[in-house]
Amino acid sequence: MNFHNKNGMSPVRKNESTVSLMKKLLAEGIGTMFLVLLACGSAVLAGPSIGGLGIGLCFGLVLVCLCYCLGNISGCHVNPAVSFAMFLAGRMSGRECASYIVFQLLGATVGAGLLYAMVNMAPGFNFGGTTAASGSYLATNVLQPGATPALALFSEGLLTFFFVLVILGATDANKGFGKFAGLAIGLALGLVNIVGIPVDNCSVNPARSFGPAVFDSTAWGDFWIMVAGPAIGAILAVLCWKAMAAAKRSIA
Questions:
Q1: Across residues 127-135, what is the average pLDDT?
Q2: Which residues, 6 or more positions from 3, have their beta carbon under 8 angstroms from its beta carbon?
Q3: Residue 92: CB partners within 8 Å, gap ≥ 6?
């Protein structure tokens, strides 16, 4: 008796595959929630006291923790630009990529909502120099004084290029660095934030931009930059990594 469906997969294996995907999606949602809550929270609750360097360090440290917590479950993308790059690199299917992005956006929204609630639980309280009365700033990605859309788009594309390239290289099955990959990835996120914060609070992650924007409508005007820039950067990173990987093979 044939227990396989027309795609050649048994019902048991299909169910196992569905459960496995749901575990990954849950990990992506929770991971992105904590990335927004803790990393953006460092800017909202303590930004004036720790400065751009401290905020960048917080982004990097949060991602390092998440990589070692969730890396073996979902790969710990917690970023649509990373999932998009993995799809382009042939490391995940289109269906899985789209599912990851949906849960990343949901997780980011929950994280931003929790941060919004924290700030508004104590109106007038001084959060590291930023008061709740100043509004739902939430570390939204908006152009900083003097920055132009062209500069922000260029910055987001270039910084995402670097960030995703590090991820592709560090996690490569043949050329990667195994258990040390999380450290490189976290350091890379910290570095790009230190550089990009003065331009537009640094996104390199459309989900990180989407969550806070849900609670602060003033951020939607610049949101397209936080999608287009990382998408362009992800494409460039994949093309560059594939070219370098091909060159290594030909040399070998």
A1: 42
A2: 10, 11, 12
A3: 83, 86, 100
Model confidence pLDDT, tens digit, residues 93-121: 999 999 999 999 999 999 999 999 998 88
In the DSSP assignment, the letter for residue 173 is T
Other CB atoms within 10 Å distance of the CB of residue 21: 15
Residue found by looking up tokens 């953006």 in the block: 40
Terminal CA-to-CA distance of the chain, rounded, Å?
49
Rounded CA-CA distance 153/136 in Å is: 24
Cα 209 to Cα 204: distance, rounded to the nearest angstrom: 9
Domain boundaries, the chain: 12-251
Considering only residues 30 and 130, tell me which one the structure prediction assigns the higher pLDDT. 30
3-state secondary structure (DSSP) of residue 218: helix
Contact 115, 36 (CB under 8 A): yes
42-55 tens-digit pLDDT? 999 888 889 999 99
CATH architecture observed for domain 12-251: Up-down Bundle (1.20)
